[in-house]
Design a protein that fits this description.
The protein is α/β, with parallel strands linked by helices. 52% of the residues lie in helices and 17% in strands. It contains seven helices and eight strands. It has a four-stranded parallel sheet, with helices on both faces. A two-stranded antiparallel sheet has the order 1-2. β3 and β4 form a beta hairpin. α2 runs antiparallel to α4, α3 crosses α4 and α4 runs parallel beside α5.
Length: 212
């Protein structure tokens, strides 16, 4: 499927291949199988990976800004803000992962017993992001879900799949396992509906209109 510059509708920016039914099943199977080991890594190790990803986003900020301009029609200032917000999300949730998802908290034991409280991932999360913040909200959604110990199936808005793909590449480069974070481009009315209605999904993070 061709992807066009919204400011120049006759100027192609790139192309994307939508996932088919067989690929979707593979994604569910592999992400589900990878969840437990990812959750068991603990918040601190997941935070280290996400901080590396934040560093990579900053190092590649000019490329990401260019994609935001070409594919989403962002101004230069808005494109820069998009990178900063995406990085802020990753660093913020990394801090929270260390605080809340690393080691159990010891609770009061008034009768002498030892009580511990710990947080873990729920399983498989679907993240569906909007076209108007194709990097910032996309990254915020999946970084929160990943740092909480979940495997993620990420479906970007169909208008901005290239920005999302580059973000996924950088997250994989930082150390997020490919099975744990999977990129699923497609139309909202078909793929989005399948993802949100599947009983294997343990949580949905959604931002945008009903046609996203």
């Amino acid at each position: 499927m061709p992807v066009f510059n919204p400011a120049r509708p006759d100027a192609p920016v790139g192309s994307v291949q939508y996932v088919d039914e067989a690929q979707l099943e593979v994604a569910f199977d592999t992400a589900g199988a990878a969840f437990f080991e990812w959750d068991q890594r603990g918040g601190a190790k997941r935070a280290e990976i996400m901080e590396r990803a934040a560093d990579l986003f900053e190092q590649q900020r000019f490329e990401l800004m260019a994609l935001c301009q070409l594919e989403a029609g962002k101004t230069l200032a808005d494109a820069l803000s998009e990178i900063r917000e995406a990085v802020d999300f990753m660093r913020y949730y990394a801090v929270r992962a260390r605080q809340e998802f690393d080691v159990p908290s010891v609770l009061n034991g008034p009768t002498g017993e030892r009580n511990e409280y710990s947080l873990h991932g729920r399983g498989l999360f679907v993240c569906i992001s909007p076209w108007n913040f194709p990097l910032a909200i996309f990254t915020g959604q999946l970084s929160a879900a990943l740092l909480a110990g979940n495997a993620v199936l990420a479906k970007p808005a169909e208008q901005t799949p290239l920005i999302a793909w580059r973000a996924i590449q950088l997250l994989h480069e930082a150390g997020v396992p490919r099975a744990v974070l999977q990129y699923l481009p497609g139309e909202g009315v078909s793929l989005g509906a399948k993802l949100t209605s599947d009983i294997r999904v343990d949580g949905v993070v959604f931002t945008g209109g009903t046609d996203t």
